Amino acid sequence: METLNTTLLIIGGGPGGYVAGIRAGQLGVQTILVEGAQPGGTCLNIGCIPSKALIHAADEFCKARSYAAETSPLGITGSDPRIDLDRTVAWKDGIVKKLTGGVGALLKKNGVKLVNGWATILDGKTVEVTPEGSSEPTVRIRCEHMLLASGSVPVELPFMPFGGQVISSTEALSPDGVPERLVVVGAGYIGLELGTAYRKLGAQVTVVEAADRILPAYDADLVKPVASALARLGVELRLATSVLGMDDSDGQTRVRIRDASGVESLLDADRVLVAVGRKPATVGWGLENLMLDMDGRAIKVDNQCRTSMRNVWAIGDLAGEPMLAHRAMAQGEMVADIVSGKRRHFEPAAIPAVCFTDPEIVVVGMSPLDADKAGVEVITANFPFSANGRAMTIESTDGFVRVVARKSDHRIVGWQAVGGAVSELAAGFTQSIELGAQLEDIAGTIHAHPTLGEAVQEAALRALGHALHI
Ligand code: FAD
Ligand code: NAD
């Protein structure tokens, strides 16, 4: 077996691991990254990027169908749009290939050695790597610092394991056809992003959610426009409903459910997408040998991403919520800095979250409810997109921007928005919080016309009591 020695060993080449690798390489830290599948991890291969590609394709198809149905107020008509799903998937795969190839090239450019294979931890300084498809390890790597970045895996329902008709987001992102009837379990990020896309591609979609509303992590006002849009699209919601199991005794797959009043029923399904959360990937690669302190299912880390073992670090989904790519990247960059000798802490003022439903949702910092719970006295104000010219021109007036600021000094502590294309507002929201902006700063900044950004300025103006366009 080949033996390699390195300063930094990174296990997992997702957004957390590969960014840590690039940064460590830039800083001259000798680095090896071990990846069992493709560089880019969940995000680039089977998560963020392919899901957004499928959502875009579904949007375009849905738009074309509205032209054919002559329902578009724009006066555009067309006839008989079709979708060749093989080409759609090939297009999506092309984007993934370009991006994952780019990650490989960036690692190489920065002098990071990429070892393909699955790492098994022997101790806090040593791993063995087994190539995919092989039963024997071929490389042993010894390191000074070990960075754990193995990501997460979908949660499986014990009575409805993945396989056959029951799929996870991974299979849903490489469809071989559009199922006639899709049952989605879970109205969270994945269930609603992909459920909406499948509906737009032509499937009959029923979403079963245990909580009494969709996207239970967000406040009720914020999800209202999404719920209305789902109703208009014809997505059926079964809220406050439990999934009990599957029934396919006569060859027809059915999902057994029970509603809040205890009534049981069956939903016919050609596919069942289970999207009830993800859990840190902690099993099957010798992690237990390190006996690290845990925080629930995640590895416990401090504000430098140090685990309970010296020079063993953990980042990204493996280190728990929020399981978002940009948080993993920020942690990875920071750990590389620290390993190179810099003084850093992971203490962002806010981490943005975007849900790519239609309309989209952006959440940064505190909601009014969060502020209330934290005992912070705040001023909040909404500006509706129905009063924004740009929103009208892109046919997306259902939604609003909301600002949350401390009453005492007008310092902005949170932004929320729901509306078409609002994901692009996330950067400005996060910058304003990170830079400690006050309402007056945003209200006094000239925002380009006509843009959705004007609703951001107007929300701040409204909080100060003098909105101009409402
Ligand atoms: P991962 O990206 O999971 O990478 C971990 C890597 O480690 C994998 O490549 C895996 O093969 C490798 N690995 C694991 N164990 C070993 C081992 N023993 N040896 C070698 N390699 C190993 N987040 C967003 O911010 N925005 C989005 O729009 C978004 N959309 C998503 C859509 C879907 C459908 C899904 C599933 C997730 C989405 N996410 C999104 C979440 C995002 O993908 C994750 O938060 C992010 O990928 C976490 O990065 P990571 O580096 O921690 O882990
Ligand atoms: P999620 O936590 O967003 O949603 C899971 C939903 O399933 C919740 O609403 C929950 O109440 C419901 N649920 C749980 N058990 C259930 C059951 N037995 N029956 C019915 N409903 C049940 O999880 P997800 O959608 O699987 O996504 C996983 C993670 O991936 C997210 O938390 C997020 O971190 C990440 N992600 C992010 C994005 C994005 O940033 N745009 C997109 C997709 C995924």
From TrEMBL:
Note: The active site is a redox-active disulfide bond.
Family matches, as InterPro entries: Class-I_Pyr_Nuc-Dis_Oxidored (IPR050151), FAD/NAD-bd_sf (IPR036188), FAD/NAD-binding_dom (IPR023753), FAD/NAD-linked_Rdtase_dimer_sf (IPR016156), Lipoamide_DH (IPR006258), Pyr_nuc-diS_OxRdtase (IPR001100), Pyr_nucl-diS_OxRdtase_dimer (IPR004099), Pyr_OxRdtase_I_AS (IPR012999)
Keywords: Disulfide bond, FAD, Flavoprotein, NAD, Nucleotide-binding, Oxidoreductase, Redox-active center
UniProt record, GO biological process: 2-oxoglutarate metabolic process
Highest classification ranks of the organism: Bacteria, Pseudomonadati, Pseudomonadota, Betaproteobacteria, Burkholderiales
Pfam families linked: Pyr_redox_2, Pyr_redox_dim
PANTHER family in UniProt: DIHYDROLIPOYL DEHYDROGENASE (PTHR22912:SF160), DISULFIDE OXIDOREDUCTASE (PTHR22912)
Gene Ontology MF annotations: dihydrolipoyl dehydrogenase (NADH) activity; flavin adenine dinucleotide binding
Cofactor field: FAD
Residues binding FAD, per UniProt: K52, D317, M323, L324, A325, H326
Broad EC category: oxidoreductase
Ligand binding (NAD(+)): G186, A187, G188, Y189, I190, G191, L192, E193, E209, G277
Family: Belongs to the class-I pyridine nucleotide-disulfide oxidoreductase family.
NCBIfam families: lipoamide_DH
Annotated ranges, domain Pyridine nucleotide-disulphide oxidoreductase dimerisation: 351-460
This protein's encoding gene: lpdA
Catalytic activity: N(6)-[(R)-dihydrolipoyl]-L-lysyl-[protein] + NAD(+) = N(6)-[(R)-lipoyl]-L-lysyl-[protein] + NADH + H(+)
EC number(s) given by UniProt: 1.8.1.4
Protein name: Dihydrolipoyl dehydrogenase
Source taxon at top rank: Bacteria
Disulphide linkage map: C43-C48
Cofactor binding note of this UniProt entry: Binds 1 FAD per subunit.
Active site per UniProt: H449 (proton acceptor)
Transmembrane parts of this sequence: none
